[in-house]
Amino acid sequence: MEKVLHTLYHKNKVYCKQGKVASYIPALAKQDGEKFGVAVMDLSGKFFAVGDVEEKFTLQSISKVFTLMLAIIDKGQEYVFSKVGMEPTGDPFNSIVKLETMNPSKPLNPMINAGAIAISSMIKGKNNGERFNRIRGFLEEIIGEKITFNEEVYLSEKETGNRNRAAAYFMKDVGIIEGNVEEVLDLYFRHCSLEVNCIQLAKLAGMLANQGVSVITGKRMVSKEITQLVKSFMVTCGMYNASGQFAIKVGVPAKSGVGGGIMAVVPNKYGVAVWGPALDQVGNSIGGVKILEDMSKEFDWSIF
Ligand code: DON
């Protein structure tokens, strides 16, 4: 694997030049679009890694997978899916167009921004500090080490995230969000700004590949049933309006974030992380998607 990974890394790194780093969150525009890293962990905890795998980046939308698991633990599936749907949108991740036209009016799935904001409102805790620590603590328990937080990216998104704010206020109006809207948004912006490197992200993916048990600590974090549910969302909605193409070309559950990370899961085999902040037009890491296509072909990863 090591040798093939090196070859594929150098082959696909050139694609990073064709992408653009996210700029709608001003602090993300400072990222270096030429950075590129890939890490694969097998279920014995053995690593194969190439490139910028020690550098931190914000989870952004990848955090939605973990908040979904916590919301289901806290509120149960019935409540969660009475507020958020289970269908892909075909629209960009930040689109709000379908919020009003769908009947009943609810975000289509928990992987788009609107759905994830609604999910943030379901995390248990007496106040936002407790809720945030619960999310961060969950991630830390999976990988067995501390997770850092990028204050600059958080403040930058909090200041400029008006489209998310619009979605949240609309959802409050129609009863999808209970509680204080600004607090819910604050929690959402905070969990999007938690940081990992590729090694840590591969450990997070490994828990899902391992049916809910942390590869690092051996501790069961969630039930197998919940991991099946979130992996299904990753397949159908994890790469936004490129999820269909990704399923065909790569064929594994994956979740991207505008920080340039992609967390991919090869069930019962590998936790995979790629990072390349240069994004394609959909908002997925351009080099990241390309190398995953090649790795899937090379190692026969497709689940289909
Ligand atoms: O809400 C946002 O726009 C960001 N915090 C997260 C979006 C994101 O990562 C979409 N990913 N490709």
UniProtKB/TrEMBL annotation:
<dbReference type="InterPro" id="IPR015868">
    <property type="entry name" value="Glutaminase"/>
</dbReference>
<dbReference type="GO" id="GO:0006543">
    <property type="term" value="P:L-glutamine catabolic process"/>
</dbReference>
<feature type="binding site">
    <location>
        <position position="164"/>
    </location>
    <ligand>
        <name>substrate</name>
    </ligand>
</feature>
<keyword id="KW-0378">Hydrolase</keyword>
<comment type="similarity">
    <text>Belongs to the glutaminase family.</text>
</comment>
<feature type="binding site">
    <location>
        <position position="258"/>
    </location>
    <ligand>
        <name>substrate</name>
    </ligand>
</feature>
<feature type="binding site">
    <location>
        <position position="113"/>
    </location>
    <ligand>
        <name>substrate</name>
    </ligand>
</feature>
<feature type="binding site">
    <location>
        <position position="61"/>
    </location>
    <ligand>
        <name>substrate</name>
    </ligand>
</feature>
<comment type="subunit">
    <text>Homotetramer.</text>
</comment>
<dbReference type="GO" id="GO:0004359">
    <property type="term" value="F:glutaminase activity"/>
</dbReference>
<dbReference type="GO" id="GO:0006537">
    <property type="term" value="P:glutamate biosynthetic process"/>
</dbReference>
<feature type="binding site">
    <location>
        <position position="240"/>
    </location>
    <ligand>
        <name>substrate</name>
    </ligand>
</feature>
<protein>
    <recommendedName>
        <fullName>Glutaminase</fullName>
        <ecNumber>3.5.1.2</ecNumber>
    </recommendedName>
</protein>
<feature type="binding site">
    <location>
        <position position="188"/>
    </location>
    <ligand>
        <name>substrate</name>
    </ligand>
</feature>
<feature type="binding site">
    <location>
        <position position="157"/>
    </location>
    <ligand>
        <name>substrate</name>
    </ligand>
</feature>
<dbReference type="InterPro" id="IPR012338">
    <property type="entry name" value="Beta-lactam/transpept-like"/>
</dbReference>
<dbReference type="Pfam" id="PF04960">
    <property type="entry name" value="Glutaminase"/>
</dbReference>
<keyword id="KW-0007">Acetylation</keyword>
